[in-house]
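User: structure tokens for this one?
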Amino acid sequence: MRKSKFTETQIVGMTKEAESAAPILEIHRKHGVGQSMFYKWRSKYGGMEASDVKRLKELEGENRKLKDIFATLSLKHSMLEEIISKKL
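Assistant:
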């Protein structure tokens, strides 16, 4: 996936600017962002603060690690059950 040239903080700033009744087309032109991308960002980051975005990234990373741990333990468990069933 292509990396955005804008940071999450900048994106949140743009959505805040749109919430403050600034014309949307002016925001697009000012920052050089397409309409569709801006609306995607607004649906994802709308109503958030910069600290909320940072916390969201931390939680996504933690969730990724937990899923990996669960997958590893699940695989080990199924292998051990298979070994036990073959011995009986």
